[in-house]
Amino acid sequence: MDRLLFQHIRYFPFIVFIFIILFGGCGSSLNTYYELPVEFRFPEKRIELLKIYSPYFIGKKFFIDPGHGGIDRNNIGYLGKAVEADINLKVALALKMYIDEAGGIVEMSREKDTSVDLKVRSAVANISGSDIFISIHHNASGDKNDTWTNYTSTYYHAKDSDYVFEPCQRDLAKYIQRDLAYAMRNSGGIGSFDGTYSDYNIYPGQGFSVLRLSKIPAVLVECGYTTSEFESRRLVIDEFTRIEAWGIFRGLCRYLANGIPKIQFIESVPNNATNELTISFGLNDSSGINTNTIKIFIDSVSYKSYKFNPKDNILSIHYPASNYGRHIIKILASNVKGNYAFPFYYNIFVEKNG
Ligand SMILES: [Zn+2]
């Protein structure tokens, strides 16, 4: 018996060593696995990237909204270790740093751990003169026992069948989603083909308040799940929050580089012979307008009586001069690279002659 026990004791250090390998060092390093973007590893790559994309940021303003904060600290993550409000702020501040570096202008809904009302966030964004609104969040599973669910998703407001839907928001969401998910090495979940979702998926017919109330192109990112054991370990690492921000920044770079068509009112000319008004708009983009994407709405109803001339980029809408009163024209159009124009609404007032 003694001899047998001795043999066991002899193997004990070896068994402990195997345990450390399996459940200690190797195990935890797998649980916090992430990859550094190539621009983090090679400074010259970062300089190269900024040289290419900076021209698209200069003169543009971005409104960054780190979700929650202050008294709103409900999502505390796996074992209370990954507080969403704090992680959102870290990602947002790093994103501000990258946009600043590229020459863009940034305004934020909060730069500290403060409480900001949801309605105030979009109201401030709307008067900030910003071109793009990005709300930064991290997700949480509704099931207390679910420590596994984890994916990256990006939301835009409404669905394409709705009048209020702005396809430019889905374009922006697609670019941010792809580069953010890639940077985090996450998938986009199985609820959507490309990881972008309408906010009606969460609140049918309403969507997220910050997106619904925003008058500028807006998206909301749910970078990862704080309630995932795996993700929570990465989210508390500062370097990882910078990787997330870099992913969003890369998405913005690629989105802006594909150009955004510009729509401008030119004139409204009455034609007494036909009793119509010809209302013309310039649709301009360096890569050209995709004629098939043009859609006109007047007073929120689809309107078909128009012509677009790709040679001079002039869109002419023919409208009955007898429809007196104020009308709202909405125009949708994308360039050949697939980027839609920013929300465009134009008020006309048809006067009664004589
Ligand atoms: Zn949130």
Describe this structure as you would to a colleague:
This protein has 354 residues and is α/β, with parallel strands linked by helices. The protein has nine helices and 14 strands. 36% of the residues lie in helices and 26% in strands. The chain has helices at residues 2-31, 38-41, 43-57, 84-102, 118-127, 167-184, 209-212, 229-235, 238-257, and strands at 61-66, 105-108, 132-139, 153-156, 196-198, 218-225, 262-271, 276-284, 289-298, 301-302, 306-309, 314-320, 325-335, 345-350. The model is unreliable at 19-30 (pLDDT under 50). The strands form three sheets. Strands 2-1-3-6-4-5 form a six-stranded mixed β-sheet. It has a four-stranded antiparallel β-sheet with strand order 7-8-12-11, with no helix packed on it. The longest helix is centred in the N-terminal third of the chain and has 30 residues, at 2-31. α3 (43-57) crosses α9, α4 (84-102) packs across α9 (238-257) and α6 packs antiparallel against α9 (238-257). It folds into two domains: 26-257, Zn-dependent exopeptidases (Aminopeptidase), CATH 3.40.630.40; 262-350, Immunoglobulins (Immunoglobulin-like, Sandwich), CATH 2.60.40. The radius of gyration is 26 Å and the shape is elongated. Zinc ion binds at residues 67-68, 84, 137.
